[in-house]
Amino acid sequence: MIHFLTFTAAVGARLGGINRRFVCLAIGVLISVSACSSAEHGVGRSHHTGQGFRNLHTTDDKTFFDFVTWQWQRLSKNIPSPEAYHFPIAGTDPGFLRREHHSAAITWIGHATLLLQSNRLNILTDPHFSERASPVQWAGPKRAVPPGIPLDDLPEIDVVLISHNHYDHLDEESVMKLFWRPGGDRTVFIVPLKLKEWFTRRGIERVVELDWWDEHRTGKATVIAVPVQHWSKRGLFDGFETLWAGWVIRVDGRQYLIVCDAGYSLEYSEIRRRLGPSDLAALPIGAYEPRWFMKKYHMTPEEAVQAHIDAGAGTSVGIHWGTFVLTDEPLDEPPVRLGKALKEKEISPDRFLVLQHGETIIFDSGGIRRMAGTGNAEAASAHVPAIP
Q: Which CATH architecture does the domain made up of 88-382 adopt?
């Protein structure tokens, strides 16, 4: 329930006191109706149900009362506001991103928004450039840091991958701005099953729907939808009606695993078994507290390290942190816990990187290099470690 309920709590906060609790409880009741019904499906081999989809290794057992408990506990916590954080912006030169690259380049724009550039293809994941992760821009989780690369500074985008329909991953304003840009009508949107209709209702026709393990060839890249443990919901009564997915991208002799939002599960080992190890993985490391409420659908940094191992990733990059206040942990905590987890597993921090917002890494025959922040490829420095 996290994304819609976080918005609900934010609306209630604007009303204050008793009204806040009334709004949270009233809307929470409506949401819990669909959330509770999913548990009836149980665990099975197929992820298709009569009403939509389900996870393979867990059921959704959270109730309205669990949500009330979480929100009540939050009232007594001193959760910092977005304004309390001051994350640096890497300052990558947009001109560098627009030039043709002989090497692959990956830029973390913020949250789950990544720009992958390889073999003259520009692939963007879960584009979010709005001020809030919310159905409205006057309430809901607010940005703690601007997008590392403004939307207007992006190169022409060939492919957009959407992992699922939560508001912090499928942002209507960002999608429409990408579509309305010069050349935007040539962009191909690749989405999980049952999500195509959302785009066609807005006049976007170049949309490809994939089920788990389906693949689509676009240009010189192959995109494969892979299972991850998460869920979908955008309104009061549409829980689990559209599919969610991670992505494996094969381009220019390399394989990339992109998981924009998910809990820890057996899927990472299964992806490796079916598709082989990935040269680079992007894995979520934030939005995980409280664990009793978030555990199934959001990984901790420690679990992300295990997912990195399970997937056989050569190098991983931490995403889904430091951008929106969605849950209870401090926004700057995930990199610290990640560093400790890597040390405990005796994994070099070079193998699991934490990037600044807007930072670019270069992937070439010599390995992975991090941009020095000047936008000059010649100034790229080799293997800058993650934040300790």
A: 4-Layer Sandwich (3.60)
Cα radius of gyration rounded to whole Å, the chain = 20
Q: Which two tokens stand for residue 13?
A: 């906060």
Residues in CB range of 9: below 8 A, 6 or more apart: 20, 24, 71, 74
Q: Which of 301, 379, 319, 359 is nearest to 92 (CA)?
A: 359
DSSP letter for 254, please: E
Write the DSSP symbol of residue 212. Answer: T
Query: 372 pLDDT band (50/70/90 cuts)?
Result: low
Which pLDDT does position 365 carry in this prediction? 82
Q: What angle do CA 125, 367, 372 make, to 5 degrees?
A: 70
| pTM, to two decimals | 0.87
Mean pLDDT of 235-239: 88
- The structural domains of the chain, with segments of one domain joined by +, span 2-82, 88-382
- Of 351, 377, 347, the C-alpha closest to 362 is 377
Write down the pLDDT at residue 374.
Answer: 38
CA distance 190 to 114: 15
pLDDT tens for 58-87 read: 988 777 788 789 888 888 888 999 999 999
Q: Where are the alpha helices (DSSP H) in the chain?
A: 2-15, 17-37, 64-75, 94-98, 172-180, 196-200, 267-275, 291-294, 301-311, 333-344
- Which residue, among 170, 258, 248, 252, has the nearest Cα to 214 in the 3D structure? 248
What separation in angstroms does the CA of 102 have from each of 153, 154, 252, 258, 358? 21, 18, 10, 22, 20
Give tens-digit pLDDT for 106-156. 999 999 999 999 999 999 999 999 999 999 889 889 999 999 999 999 999
Got the DSSP string for 256-311?
EEE--S-B--THHHHHHHHH---SEEEEE-----SHHHHTTTS--HHHHHHHHHHH
- Alpha carbon 294 to its chain's center: 15
